[in-house]
Predict the structure of Endonuclease.
Amino acid sequence: MFKKFIFALALALSSSASFAAPVFSECRQFFSKGQIPVIPHETELNTRALCYSSFAILHSAKSHTPIYVAEKLNRQTIIDAKGNERTNRFFADARLPRAERAELSDYKNSGYDRGHMAPAGNMATPEAMAQSFSLANMVPQAPENNRKTWASIENATRKYAMRARGDIYVLTGPVFEARPTTIGENKVWVPKYLFKLVYDPSENKRWAYWVENIDDTKAGKPITYEELVKRTGIQFFTERM
């Protein structure tokens, strides 16, 4: 049922343009053991690997959104983030060519929030906070979903990071339908689902939150890593855990 979404994404993103496979050479620390997720039809995806001070993004030129965002969290980063003032200064990321990126005008009067994939509430420094408002880190998100259900998932992840014995790794992203709804002149794709994968190496635990991108969705019981791979087709870890 679910695999059609990620495979549809891969086919939709295919084009004659040639892009290098993501290497994240300057920010592999946000991936457990430096493992970069393996996505179906990787060589066909029009993507760019973007490094920020506190997270990494694999960005799509056709959806104008992330495919996934990677973070490394721990007790200290969450403590530091609590005292960091939220800026709310959204911006189109100038590192992306204009044809590949979302613009502020795309979200205006769209009926959707600019939904963070790497949350502002995780950002431990002013620089990281400012960077988190890049539209490269956003997806069109149903407002009540963003402000209530998804916010509760983000809070649950921070609470876990606070009590974890060491670093945890978090991968967050959208999943699209074969013919996604779009917003704005740049036709930014609206996700059908959102996921957040959490991995705690110290406990060898991994689980994922999965929610539909609608206002009245509820945060259900987390799904297993294996179920997330089945639904998305993405191998998030290339080594056995």
